[in-house]
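To close the chapter, one final illustration. This time we ask the reader to focus less on the individual chains and more on the assembly as a whole: which components sit near each other, and how the overall shape emerges from the parts.
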Amino acid sequence: MSEDEDVILIGEEEIILLLEDIYYCYGYDFSDYSKASLKRRISRIMHHDKLPSLAELKVKVLKDEEYFNHFLEEITVNVTEMFRDPLFYKELREKVLPQLSTYPSIRIWHAGCSTGEEVYSMAIMLEEEGLLDRSLIYATDINQRVLEKAKSAKFSIDNMRQYTQNYILSGGKKEFSYYYTAEYGKVLFKEDLKNRMVFSTHNLVADQSFNEFNLIVCRNVLIYFNQDLQNKVIGLFNESLPKLAYIALGSKETLAFSDYENNYKAVNAKQRIWQKIK
Amino acid sequence: MAKNKIDYDVIVIGGSAGSVDVLMKIVPQLPEDYPLVVIVVIHRKVIDNDLLLSLLQSKSKIKVKEAESNEKIEPCCVYLAPADYHLLMESDKTFTLDFSEKVMYSRPSIDVTMYFAAQVYKNKLVGILLTGANEDGAKGMRDIKNRGGYTIVQDLSSSTAKIMPEAAIKLVEPDEVLNVENIIKTIININTKI
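The assembled structure is written out below.
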């Protein structure tokens, strides 16, 4: 949905104070997130929830944990789509999956997976390459509510035309509709795709590495982080990748400027896919 | 031109349908050492993203690049908002790219970039809105004007699509309404003429 832009005037200092309170109250640290993005998100929440001032938002957020969970869902950007940037998926399919197919088992981590559209895209691709049975996809996000949506395997039918186009451009091998059944304005994706997914909350800012992976996918998450936090998160990924494993970022994100840049070589610089070489 | 002399630091140029041609006339005219920051937000398809960048680079004396998250905003450079991302600005004068919902069916949204530019650069900012077929940009131009910036809208007779400039003229009462040739003259001499 497209909507009007009417950003409520909120001072940056006020936002910083709210973020500090949230950190003390709930332990979520947003201090290294883009203030400009947070300003828009907070303004949007105030519009939607008809809150006239930041003070009132603050009271609700700090007193009502249920409301905080809603705030947490809205404060991060959860816009995503299936086979987003089709040529990125084509590159994964043609360059990375053949390498992964040489392993007896494949572990993939989708960090910041939001409502899961890209996780299902990955599962579809793995199935078509005959790899899904021996793959496990760990799908994590900071926020439980979007993970519930991802787990439901249900997506709006309105987007299927776009997703079908993306799927075809990405080198899809079947009819896209083979993977879902339509019901009441939604589509439900096949159970066997979901069987190979593990959903869990994970906070990239605060939590540790939890496994080693053959491929980490983290797209359009780092753009909201300042340079220090980007570096820290890339460090976390670096710890979670053995030599020869892959990492894939969003189309405007890079490993350059991080301390770990030299550990990787580009598989495809334009599509933002790298392989760990040391 | 009754305004007191202000040295401007930044120009934000917004446009949609027809504006690539106008941009191809403006940017190659800027000298290599043009002292202002130029930020360009043009609606276009993802697939045309690299094409516009390389076209502009090949024709221009001034440095042209795509804006990146956390990049420091510096003069003598034309920054393009990448297709399919909103371009935000932080108070420390760095960019942030943002993949949130479209605004008025547009991503990048001209309103969004102009809003943040107005917050950060206040009366050091010039907003220019070109031809286009939707009403994005009008509110952004209003934000620029409200914060003391200078506003220029392309005139209707030289605009291939009139909805965008018309909406801004109606909402904002811009400081100037100019054809392309005069837009170029004005921005080249911006810190001497106004």
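The mean pLDDT of chain A is 95. The radius of gyration of chain A is 19 Å. With these observations in hand, you are ready for the problems at the end of the chapter.
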